[in-house]
Write a structure and sequence with these properties.
Blueprint: E1 25-34, E2 42-52, E3 58-69, E4 77-83, E5 86-95, E6 98-101, H1 107-121, H2 128-139, H3 150-162, E7 172-175, E8 183-196, E9 199-209, E10 217-228, E11 244-246, E12 249-251, E13 254-261, E14 271-279
Antiparallel strand pairs: 1-2, 2-3, 3-4, 4-5, 5-6, 7-8, 8-9, 9-10, 11-12, 13-14
Length: about 280
C-alpha cells in the first residue's frame, strides 16, 4: 500500500539529481488536499518515482495518484511514465489490497494490435499520411488532440472508445505556449453543468506539466467555465477537441483561451481559468 507523507511544496523535485547509480530508482510519497468547500474537497496520495537507466541518467518519472476520499476522483490508480515529453498511460486496479498492473508490460503490443485493427476498418482507403498519423497517435495518444482531419480524428476517437482504450489518461489534449509550463491538458470528457439558451457551462479536470519540477504533473481543477458560441478564440493556441453529446447540442471542436495563476499558500495548485470557447 502507498504510504502517506506530507510535503508543503510541489517543487521538491528540484532536489532530484540528474544521475544516480545505474539501474536504481527512488520515489517520494506525499499527501495533498485541495478545496475549501466540503463538496469540492478531495484528498489524494501521490507517488513520483525516478527511473534511472544503466547509464545512470534518469530516463523518466513514474507518476501515481491514488484517490482516497471524496470528489470526482477515479476509483483506480493512475500511472504515467514520462520520458522527455512523451506520455505513456497505464492503469492499476486495486485487488485484495494490492495494486495490480493492467497493461504496463503489454502496452506496445496492445497498440500494435489496435493499429492493425484500425487500419483494417479504413477498408484499404488509407493514405501514407493517415498511416503516419494513426501510428503516431496510437504510440502517443497525446497527439490525438493535434489531428485536424475531422474524419480521421473521429474514427480514431470512437475506435479507441469502442476498444475500451478511452480512459481518462488516454486522451490528453495539450495546449502549448503556456508560460512556465510544457503543456496544459484537459482530462476525459467535459461534463455539462448547465445549458441556458446560447450559454453553455462546462466542467473540466485539468493538469499542468511544470518544467521547473522536471516534468512532474501539478493538478488543478477548473470547476466551471461558461461561454457563448459567438465568442472568438484567441489566436496562437492549439485547438483541442471533444465529441460531446449534450442533448440536442453536438460540440465537435472547442478552442480555449486559458490563463494560469498560482495561489499563495500550500499546497500550491496551478489554477487554470478558461476564458473563451469557440464551438464549430
Amino acid at each position: 500500500m502507498i504510504k502517506e507523507k506530507k510535503y508543503q511544496d510541489w517543487r521538491f523535485l528540484q532536489q532530484w539529481p540528474e544521475s544516480l547509480s545505474p539501474g536504481k530508482s527512488f520515489y517520494y510519497d506525499y499527501c495533498v488536499s485541495t478545496g475549501n468547500e466540503a463538496a469540492e474537497q478531495f484528498t489524494a496520495t501521490i507517488r513520483l518515482t525516478a527511473i534511472v537507466g544503466q547509464d545512470g541518467i534518469r530516463k523518466g518519472i513514474i507518476y501515481e495518484r491514488a484517490p482516497i476520499l471524496g470528489g470526482n476522483m477515479n476509483p483506480f490508480l493512475e500511472l504515467a511514465y514520462f520520458s522527455g515529453k512523451c506520455f505513456y498511460p497505464v492503469q492499476l486496479f486495486q485487488k485484495n489490497n494490492e495494486w495490480e498492473v493492467v497493461n504496463i508490460n503489454t502496452l506496445n503490443e496492445n497498440w500494435r494490435q489496435i493499429k492493425e485493427q484500425l487500419l483494417l476498418e479504413f477498408e484499404g482507403a488509407v493514405t501514407a499520411s493517415v498511416i503516419r498519423q494513426t501510428e503516431a497517435v496510437l504510440e502517443n495518444p497525446v497527439l490525438l488532440g493535434k489531428i485536424y482531419d475531422e474524419d480521421l480524428f473521429l474514427k480514431l476517437y470512437f475506435f479507441l472508445i469502442r476498444e475500451q482504450r478511452a480512459t481518462d489518461t488516454f486522451f490528453q489534449f495539450s495546449l502549448p505556449l503556456v508560460p512556465d509550463a510544457d503543456a496544459v491538458s484537459f482530462k476525459g470528457m467535459p461534463s455539462v453543468t448547465s445549458i441556458e439558451e446560447d450559454l453553455i457551462s462546462l466542467s473540466f479536470d485539468a493538469e499542468c506539466m511544470d518544467t521547473r519540477t522536471h516534468g512532474a504533473l501539478i493538478y488543478g481543477k477548473c470547476r466551471s467555465a461558461s461561454a457563448t458560441r459567438n465568442e472568438l478564440a484567441v489566436k496562437g493556441l492549439a485547438r483541442f477537441r471533444y465529441q460531446l453529446d449534450a442533448g440536442t447540442l453536438l460540440i465537435k471542436k472547442i478552442t480555449a483561451n486559458i490563463e494560469l495563476s498560482e495561489p499563495s499558500g500550500a499546497p500550491k495548485f496551478w489554477q487554470i481559468k478558461i476564458n473563451t470557447y469557440n464551438y464549430e
